[in-house]
């Protein structure tokens, strides 16, 4: 009997302890349950503030979810941006006096992306760029700062040919991307702004030397200084009737300028102009001879009077007709036709307007027509100008009757264009 009573007491005590344990568990357990204890966020992504993205609603009482607070005050947000900075943070979720912590890690695993990657670059022999110069040729996009380097250890800058260099872009988190680039080493080059011209005794002009090579200064010399002399900076002075060749050299290559000097016309005027010498960057004085009848200028070609008033406007149809007539003259001489070039045409239009008020091969700013075609890969070029006729056939006939202008038309030029503007004509030729 005593054993039965003792057994009942044991059961009752056990039940009481269990009830108290259950009550204690209910009051001490955390009612907040997270889907995960740690979370990784890619740098640049916006952090969600929606509680439901973090709370495990199957284990958390749905009635309290809306009352759970989310504290993200410890997270550093990038300045002027809407996403967290790289680092490790804590997000605190709380309900009444209970809290749950989520460990947040913001990392950057995204590689930089090159912008408009240049797959081929060219350098002139013996002109090795500095590491900074080479790397500045490339840019890359990334949310973090990017450093670009170029490994050109396999490039021989002293020998013409094709090589491979490797461009690397790496961000602050050590994410990197590499890409190979073809490096082409080319021979030095020198190009003059004009290959030929006819001038009067006493006139002077400055040749513009475009140089690609280690030495960027040209050496000039004349084949006949009695006809035309040239100084060390490319200023040519016409002295006597005849022809001469001006040679510009640099880095072992040469470019030639053929000059024909004609007698100074009677009753002509002399004008002094201040121009910028491209080779030195300094101002210099040049002399221009203006005939009393400029329509017979050696630089213009012959022309005939059109009679009546002429509208000061462009005519592409007249220009194209004059262009085709010049190709017809080339065909008679057994030469291939020149191709029309729109860049040359735009340059011709500029020059046609300029010669209305400044009848000269020298532009009003002291430059040359070649300044207008710098973007083209020409090796030689020339310019014919004329005025006083509206007829394409007349202007071409006048040019063909002038040795200098005929030579331009029948040269080895591959491209050309013509502009007509109110009785003024310009053809620019180029060999490309």
Descriptive tags:
four-stranded mixed β-sheet; 4 domains; Immunoglobulin-like; about 425 residues
Tell me what the structure shows:
The chain is an alpha+beta fold and 432 residues long. The chain has 4 domains: 70 residues, no CATH class; 74 residues, Sandwich (Immunoglobulin-like); 103 residues, Immunoglobulin-like, CATH 2.60.40.1080; 118 residues, Pathogenesis-related Protein p14a (3-Layer(aba) Sandwich), CATH 3.40.33. The chain is built from 7 helices and 25 strands. A 4-stranded mixed β-sheet has the order 1-4-3-2, with no helix packed on it. Helix 4 packs parallel to helix 6. It is elongated and about 145 Å long. About 6% of the residues have low confidence.
Outline the secondary-structure elements.
Layout: H1 2-28, E1 38-42, H2 62-65, E2 69-71, E3 87-95, E4 98-107, E5 113-114, E6 120-124, H3 131-135, E7 140-141, E8 146-151, E9 161-171, E10 176-186, E11 189-192, E12 196-200, E13 204-206, E14 209-212, E15 219-222, E16 228-230, E17 235-238, E18 242-250, E19 253-262, E20 269-276, E21 283-290, H4 316-332, E22 339-340, H5 342-357, E23 380-387, H6 392-400, H7 403-409, E24 415-421, E25 424-431
Parallel strand pairs: 1-4, 6-10, 12-19, 22-24
Antiparallel strand pairs: 2-3, 3-4, 5-7, 8-9, 9-10, 11-14, 13-17, 15-18, 16-17, 18-19, 20-21, 23-25, 24-25
Helix pairs in contact: 4-6
